Amino acid sequence: MKRPVIGWREWVQIPELGVFEIKAKVDTGAATSSLHAFRLERFEKDGLSFVRFEIHPRQRSKRPSIECEAPIVRDTAVRNPGGRTELRPVIASTLVIAGQPVEALINLTGRDEMGYRMLLGRRTLRNRFVVDPGRSYLGPRPKRSEEPA
């Protein structure tokens, strides 16, 4: 099966979280995918661990702010760009990348100071896409007013 080619940055949708377009940087050096989240609040529901958080899906903008809630799959220790290890909650969700639905594990962290609000790590991309590092946005840009197919 021929794998679709994506660029070093792509449009992504996370329909389960109400995110219908977010720019993501493809980072094959990162094992896991990361999403900018703030106001993280852990809680229990029906005996399961959940996290409530907010997302700003647009770069350099605080609008819109999307409130989300998801079960925590696990916590993971991640070395941040400053070299410090931090414990991050990990959630599972379906991403739509270049029109393709992909099941992914996503760690939640503050990425306000980063250029992109989302990183796509190699575990999300493995055996699904080929990355062309010289190109960008090879997949279609989602329409803001429409939910993904």
Shape: globular
Instruction: Please report the total strand number as a whole number.
Output: 12
Supply the CATH superfamily name: Acid Proteases
Helix proportion range: under 10%
Low-pLDDT segments: none
Question: Strand share of the residues?
Answer: over 45%
Looking at the overall shape, the CATH architecture is: Beta Barrel
Q: Taking Cα atoms only, what radius of gyration do you get, to the nearest Å? A: 15 Å
Identify the strand order in the major beta sheet. 2-3-11-4-10-9
- CATH class membership: Mainly Beta
The chain-level mean pLDDT equals 89
Verbal overview:
By secondary structure, the protein is mainly beta. The protein has one domain: Cathepsin D, subunit A, domain 1. 3% of the residues lie in helices and 54% in strands. It contains one helix and twelve strands, in the order βββββββββββαβ. The protein has one helix at residues 122-125; strands at residues 5-7, 9-14, 19-27, 33-36, 38-45, 48-55, 66-71, 74-79, 85-97, 100-109, 118-121, 130-132. It has a six-stranded mixed beta barrel. The protein is globular, with a radius of gyration of 15 Å. The mean pLDDT is 89.
